[in-house]
Each structure stands twice: as structure tokens, then as C-alpha cells.
Request: fold
Amino acid sequence: MFRSQSYILTLILLLVAYTGCKKNSNSSLIPNVAVNEFIYLNNPSSFNLQVQGGWIYNQGGYKGLVVYRRYFNFQSDDFVGYERACPLHFADACGTLKVVNDIYLECPCTGHQYLMFDGLPIDASSEQLRFYNTQFDGNNVIQIVN
Reply:
């Protein structure tokens, strides 16, 4: 009897520890909006994407998109698209990310910053940005989809 009680107690403690450590994911609460955007690199509004480290704001998503051209493992066709809604304040009027110093995305509500290269937060208490799949035709067109 003592043995079965210790198993039950251990199970309860593990369950409490698991639920206590589970991080509340607000970025998953950002409304899902269908995204199917095309960006043409020969369009003057997209010229900034012709160089590595270049970025643009674009329509689409819940509060817009940021499209960034990375240069990962010497791949010049590496693009990423991020949702502009702040992960923790997506419903607030101030909850639209802004590019800072061509390196970070910042939430004006709190000042939380995220690296444009991978969308990871600089402050460990924040969440990763929502990103969208990108496809590059190798020539001129980037497609962003979810």
C-alpha cells in the first residue's frame, strides 16, 4: 500500500511540475490569417531585398509582414518572413513590430527586441516571432505562405 501511494504522489508531483513550468504561448494566440504574398525583386519597393541584410515591410498576415534577406551558410537565396504582430501584445494598438538598426525587430509596447536573422528574442522572457514559409524562384519572385 505504501508503495502505490508513493507512485501516486510521484505522479502528482511530476504533473504539477510539468504544468507549473509550461510557458504560456501568446504568439500561438495571434489570429491565423491566410498568407499568400508575392514579392518581385525588380519592383522598386523591393530593391532593399536585393542585398543580404536587406528588409522590407509588406502587406499580409495579421498586422503585416517583415521580409528579411539572410545570408545563411553562403546561401544568397535565404529569405524569411515574420508576422509584425508583437507576440505578447498582438491585440494592443502599440503591438506592431518595428525594425531597429536593420538588425532587430522591437515591440513598442514593451521594448522587447528580436533578432531579424532568426526571430529569437533577446530577452529570454519573450517568445519567438511567428514566421512564414518563403520560397524563392532563384530569379525574381519570393512567395510567402503559411
In short: The chain is about 15% helix and 25% strand. Residues 93 and 133 are 26 Å apart (CA to CA).
